[in-house]
Amino acid sequence: MKTVRAYRLIGWICLAFLCPAAVVQGAPATAAKPNIVLILADDLGYGDLGCYGGKIATPNLDRMAKEGVRFTDYYVSQPVCSASRAALMTGRSADRVGIFGALPPKSKVVLNSQEVTIAEVLKGGGYTNALYGKWHLGDSPDSLPRSQGFHDYYGLPYSNDMWPKHPVAPEKYPPLPLMENEKVVQTMPDQTQLTKSYTERAVKFIQNSKDRPFFLLVGHNMPHVPLFVSDKFKRKSGAGLYGDVLAELDWSVGEILRAVKEAGLDEKTLVMFSSDNGPWLLYGEHSGSAGPLREGKATAFEGGFRVPFLARWPKKIPAGTVSREIVTAMDILPTVADVTGAEVTAKLDGKNIWPLMSGAKGAKSPHDAFYYYWHRELHAVRSGKWKLHFQHFYTRPNPGGKDGKPGNFSTEETGVELYDLDKDIGEKVNLASMHPDVVKKLDGIAEKARREFGDSLPKRDVTEPVRTTQ
């Protein structure tokens, strides 16, 4: 069994002996190993960035797209915080890992110590790893980042709305802790300084890591509600508080890119940017935009699962490229393992997408299908351009909130609904009755997921009459 003590005292070689089912082997540390930087926003929408058609100015993120690759069809494992992050960190679906929803403070459910994270994969290969920002995979001492392969940690252990100032349920939450490694250094911190402080830590880490390979994860709490921004960006975007917050996040990306370049590491560093799920539309003007996509966070529509993903690595990733292939957050770990020379023998759901990142001729998605799970329920499946929804309930704002308070929501139900995402990215025209053969094929593909991960939705006959949505 993998334990924290084994990792700290014995290291990755002994781990390989103790845990043969999840062996991680890394090549010897050398200066030639690339650095890995992953910047993860919280509840950022597909339509928030300029390079995805957004109206708020995001020049640094747009520059990342111009100097690297922009993915149009990148999916998270589940459209909610902890489940999404667990899958990203392990390369395994949330259903396989057993993390669902958003873990509350003092949660007894945490990321299992036997799961192997990106940080542990790279630690075994001689990397120095740091996380500055949100973790949200457990706040007990033995489940914090340094127990999962990071050498340094500073940030909030869970979402920034889980505090006594929550607009609906303040009594549920203890004072919000700002942590440095396993120690609480401040309670109820000034959230206007979070983005700035995470960025400053990230820049300093890059400056101090010039001579050794490193993995840096910057997990911004923004633009998850409650929204906060420093005075430097307050009322500067012309797009309200949400626009100000997004402008500061964009500034942070620029500072990190600048630090990489000034350290002489530009051509040695893979920098990636994404979000953990789509926008939390329940909060109205304090939420982001899904752009042309339908619905948002906590739904199986594209607005919940599909988010921006950018990757930049000069001379390795062709500038200004766009990939429309299906990729997922679970692909980050096996891809990072490939470019760093690490070997992962744990069973992964993610695939190596370096051929797509690097613009290899003829590269295609390694995924035959993508499964849209909400907790244990399989709500939809996609294969190629086709997406099939199974009959399920979901919630939507009715109406959205205002001034940082959530609105009301209504519970809706989908029928068996088929969409051509190439022509109908907004999932407006149900084609199930016109293509029963496609419905049957996708239902057969879904059976593979049901056998492997289960499905708590009642099994229904997909050939029953279905309604048409507009």
Provide the succession of SSEs.
Answer: HHEEHEHHHEEEEHEHEHEEHEHEEEEEEH
Q: List the strand order in the largest sheet.
A: 7-6-5-4-8-2-9-10-3-11
CATH topology label of the largest domain: Alkaline Phosphatase, subunit A
Helix content: 10-25%
Residues in β-strands, percent: 15-25%
The gross shape turns out to be: globular
**Regions with pLDDT < 50 over 5+ consecutive residues?**
1-31
Name of the CATH class of the largest domain: Alpha Beta
Instruction: Tell me which CATH architecture of the largest domain applies here.
Output: 3-Layer(aba) Sandwich
Strand runs, count? 18
Mean pLDDT: 92
Secondary-structure class:
alpha/beta
Alpha-carbon distance between the termini?
A: 52 Å
Computed over alpha carbons, the radius of gyration is 21 Å
The main sheet comes to: 10 strands, mixed
